[in-house]
Amino acid sequence: MSPIHYLAEDTLISLLRKRDQRAFNYLYDNYSGALYGVVIRIVLHKNYADEVIQDIFVKIWNHVELFNEEKGRLYTWMINIARNTSIDYIKSKRVQNEQKNQSLPDVVNSSETHRYADMDQMTKVDFIGMSSVLGKLKPDWKRLIEMAYYEGYTQQEISEQLEMPLGTVKTRIRAALLQLRGILNEQ
């Protein structure tokens, strides 16, 4: 079988639902980098990120029939899977125990720690090419999206951190996501 070089989103979804291995390879080749950017922002460690990426693509493959084209784009659906899987992973007891048991010098001298500690916020967001899109949001909406989707905070945690009512956080995140959808649909 020869590799696929270009697929329209609707064709890709159709082939994935038919369990076409070439479509899965295409999906991985074209989206793994962007999803990895989301994952590494949340898990902050290459070994964890590699595990999570595998889990994400297994979930996509096993649940592609749950994707609803009327609710959004495939990329957005996959980003949500990546974010949720990453958050679940870092909240798992195994990872928390590993982090507690890791000696301080190992954490401080980790090459990943230095590499990501040196990046500013917008550089990290550029892992998935979203800095220009996020830059079109109101500054307070942008911060909420960054906290929720790139830093792994729950809405309750955002509410507590920013000392903002939970209802306000939810309303503003929803408004920001609607604006982002509009911006992405224009592109």
UniProtKB/TrEMBL annotation:
Superkingdom of source: Bacteria
Family: Belongs to the sigma-70 factor family. ECF subfamily.
Source organism of this protein record: Sphingobacterium deserti
InterPro entries per UniProt: RNA_pol_sigma-70-like (IPR039425), RNA_pol_sigma-70_dom (IPR014284), RNA_pol_sigma70_r2 (IPR007627), RNA_pol_sigma70_r4 (IPR007630), RNA_pol_sigma_r2 (IPR013325), RNA_pol_sigma_r3/r4-like (IPR013324), WH-like_DNA-bd_sf (IPR036388)
Official protein name in the record: RNA polymerase, sigma-24 subunit, ecf subfamily
Residues annotated as domain RNA polymerase sigma-70 region: 27-94, 133-181
GO biological process: DNA-templated transcription initiation
SUPFAM superfamilies the record matches: Sigma2 domain of RNA polymerase sigma factors, Sigma3 and sigma4 domains of RNA polymerase sigma factors
Keyword Transferase: no
GO molecular function: DNA binding; sigma factor activity
Alphabetical keyword list: DNA-binding, Sigma factor, Transcription, Transcription regulation
Keyword Chloroplast: no
